[in-house]
Design brief:
Chain lengths: 186, 143
């Protein structure tokens, strides 16, 4: 079942006050989704664990900078995303051209459907993961944030540091490619 | 039938134990941080830090510009003589003053002589007055 972070009662205030119990609840809540997001971007188990740990430590250190407690989830994912970007910069791949294509158009009415609109059958799971990994990293990032935590386009723009139009465009192309594959495998 | 979220999370379920270890490590760092409140406070709420942090690139740029200006000034020494170079000994000064005086006197004298000569040259020529006929001596003798 999908759990939406903003609807949860998370002890962010207590964590800000320095309660280890509150931090334990927060970390436990986000550890697996955060790991999945990072792993599907960097494809390295140890590196992903390192990024998650760094994100947790940075979150505990800079919680004072978080203005809105309801945005703790997107803020934490933003920290982890920045760590992943640092890795991308060191091992940049040949995807700029495809990215430019994806960014060139501004799609305005995409978010009318939620992450549950794509249903995957058991025999499609492997194909789904294969396609996900074929997507350019930036499109993959947007799609993962949408699937894993159901972040809004605005939140995804904040996490990735991209323009809203760019996020919409990336989401459009990623979903289109995914749907195409799922239709082909049926 | 599964949602993408379920597919993704189930694929990585086996990593939970390692993630628990990561979490414990992070919690330990939180507890450690609580034991050093003064250090955390300086990190968080220094107004000077908050003021300077957004301006760090501007300040770095200005510092670099000033360093360049200072280096250029060091590399190119000034061509104009300094006050120390200009200053001479009193004896030299006295000699120079005497020389100056002599030159002035020469100039004054030469200008006075020049003025006399000029004055003579500039007198108007005497007007021609014809003599009377009786005063005129005949130039030739009639034999």
């Amino acid at each position: 079942m999908l759990v939406v972070a903003e609807r949860e009662q998370l002890p962010v205030q207590a964590a800000r006050a320095g309660s280890p119990e509150a931090w334990d609840i927060l970390f436990k809540r986000y550890q697996l989704p955060l790991y999945v997001y990072v792993f599907e971007l960097v494809h390295d188990e140890q590196a992903s664990l390192d990024v998650v740990q760094e994100a947790f430590i940075n979150a505990a250190r800079y919680i004072g900078g978080l203005r809105d407690d309801a945005k703790f989830g997107s803020w934490l994912f933003g920290i982890a995303h920045q760590k992943c970007v640092q890795r991308w910069r060191t091992q940049k791949r040949d995807e700029d051209f495809r990215e430019q294509l994806a960014d060139s158009s501004d799609i305005t009415s995409l978010h009318e459907t939620g992450p549950l609109d794509i249903i995957i059958r058991e025999e499609q799971e492997a194909e789904f993961m294969k396609l996900l990994n074929k997507l350019p990293a930036r499109q993959r990032s947007v799609l993962l944030l949408h699937f894993i935590e159901d972040f809004s386009l605005e939140e995804i723009a904040e996490i990735t540091g991209a323009q809203l139009g760019t996020v919409k465009s990336r989401m459009h192309y990623a979903k289109k490619a995914l749907r195409k594959l799922l239709e082909e495998t049926t | 039938m599964k949602t993408p979220r379920e597919v993704l999370l189930q694929r990585h379920q086996s990593i939970e134990r390692k993630l628990d270890h990561v979490r414990e490590h992070a919690i330990a760092s939180v507890v450690e941080g609580r034991e050093k409140p003064a250090e955390v406070a300086t990190h968080r709420s220094s107004p000077l830090r908050e003021f300077l942090l957004p301006l760090r690139w501007h300040l770095a740029g200005m510092t670099a510009a000033w360093i360049i200006v200072v280096l250029l000034n060091i590399d190119r020494p000034s061509n104009s003589p300094t006050a120390q170079e200009v200053s001479a000994s009193p004896r030299q000064l006295l000699a120079e003053l005497r020389e100056n005086r002599r030159q002035i006197l020469e100039l004054v004298e030469s200008s006075a002589v020049g003025a006399d000569a000029e004055g003579a040259a500039s007198l108007p020529a005497p007007a021609f007055v014809p003599r009377r006929r009786s005063d005129v001596q005949p130039a030739c003798v009639v034999v």
